[in-house]
């Protein structure tokens, strides 16, 4: 009779969409009997169990949707021997206040200095904090935009990008765009503007992007949106433009 009641309760939990609790119910009941839990303690245990399982599934889902090419924590990032970020700046970025305020980050510099590593590391921090993140190289992004009209897979991925809290675009402007590609990219940036934060990595300064986009009007429109609230982090030598020098920084003054 007892087993039948447990099975009935499990079915009822499943109907309530508490599948994890349904599966674990026999184990939870045995633990409750062994520990002489009160009714309240038993209910609290079930609630904590279900919430923990849901958070684990939610985290797994966010990690899958992020599509990171590799997973490495910023705890493993070697600060020595690089000139991209100071320890204090990295600590400030990891607080994610810039993401909550919908700031963008642009990581500039030659290959091999850790731009992608930092971008993915910050993306991981965001995923762990409950944000929706999407990673794509510029080449992948352009192909998604060009095929959205006729490929359902591209529609699904772009819907996730447009709904993401943080979009990471790696190797921005590594290749020239034609007019259609530039227009599609602008419309995406325009949609994300003041809805999401964007992290861009590039080995070319924004001053050079116009040469690759080929349309000064579109370039200006893209820059206006990307640089409205932005932190530009240089990982190499090079002069900043007047526009870059006069932007508002998210970093507090060094002491």
TrEMBL record:
InterPro entries with a match to the protein in the record: AAA+_ATPase, DNAC/IstB-like, IstB, IstB_ATP-bd, P-loop_NTPase
Keywords for this protein: ATP-binding, Nucleotide-binding
CDD domains referenced in this protein's UniProt entry, alphabetically: AAA
Keyword Isomerase: no
One GO MF term: ATP binding
UniProt KW ATP-binding keyword: yes
Domain AAA+ ATPase: 101-234
TM segment ranges: none
Top-level taxon of origin: Bacteria
GO BP terms: DNA replication
Family the entry assigns: Belongs to the IS21/IS1162 putative ATP-binding protein family.
PANTHER family in alphabetical order: ATP-BINDING PROTEIN RV3427C IN INSERTION SEQUENCE-RELATED (PTHR30050:SF4), CHROMOSOMAL REPLICATION INITIATOR PROTEIN DNAA (PTHR30050)
UniProt-recorded name of the protein: ATP-binding protein
Native source species: Jeotgalibacillus campisalis
Taxonomic lineage: Bacteria, Bacillati, Bacillota, Bacilli, Bacillales
């Amino acid at each position: 009779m007892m087993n039948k009641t447990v099975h009935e309760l499990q079915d009822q939990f499943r109907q309530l969409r508490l599948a994890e609790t349904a599966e674990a119910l026999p184990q939870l009941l045995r633990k409750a009997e062994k520990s002489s839990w009160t009714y309240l303690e038993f209910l609290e245990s079930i609630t904590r169990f279900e919430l923990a399982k849901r958070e684990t599934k939610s985290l797994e889902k966010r990690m899958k949707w992020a599509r990171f090419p590799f997973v490495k924590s910023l705890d493993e990032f070697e600060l020595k021997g690089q000139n991209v970020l100071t320890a204090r700046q990295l600590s400030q970025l990891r607080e994610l206040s810039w993401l909550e305020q919908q700031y963008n980050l642009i990581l500039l510099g030659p290959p091999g200095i850790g731009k992608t590593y930092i971008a993915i590391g910050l993306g991981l921090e965001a995923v762990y904090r409950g944000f929706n993140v999407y990673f794509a190289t510029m080449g992948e992004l352009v192909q998604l935009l060009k095929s959205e009209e006729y490929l359902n897979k591209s529609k699904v991925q772009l819907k996730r990008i447009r709904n993401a809290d943080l979009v990471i675009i790696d190797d921005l402007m590594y290749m020239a765009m034609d007019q259609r590609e530039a227009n599609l990219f602008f419309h995406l940036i325009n949609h994300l503007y003041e809805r999401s934060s964007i992290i861009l990595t590039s080995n070319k300064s924004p001053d050079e992007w116009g040469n690759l986009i080929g349309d000064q009007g579109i370039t200006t429109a893209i820059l206006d949106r990307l640089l409205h609230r932005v932190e530009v982090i240089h990982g190499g030598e090079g002069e900043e433009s007047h526009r870059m020098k006069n932007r508002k920084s998210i970093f507090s003054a060094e002491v």
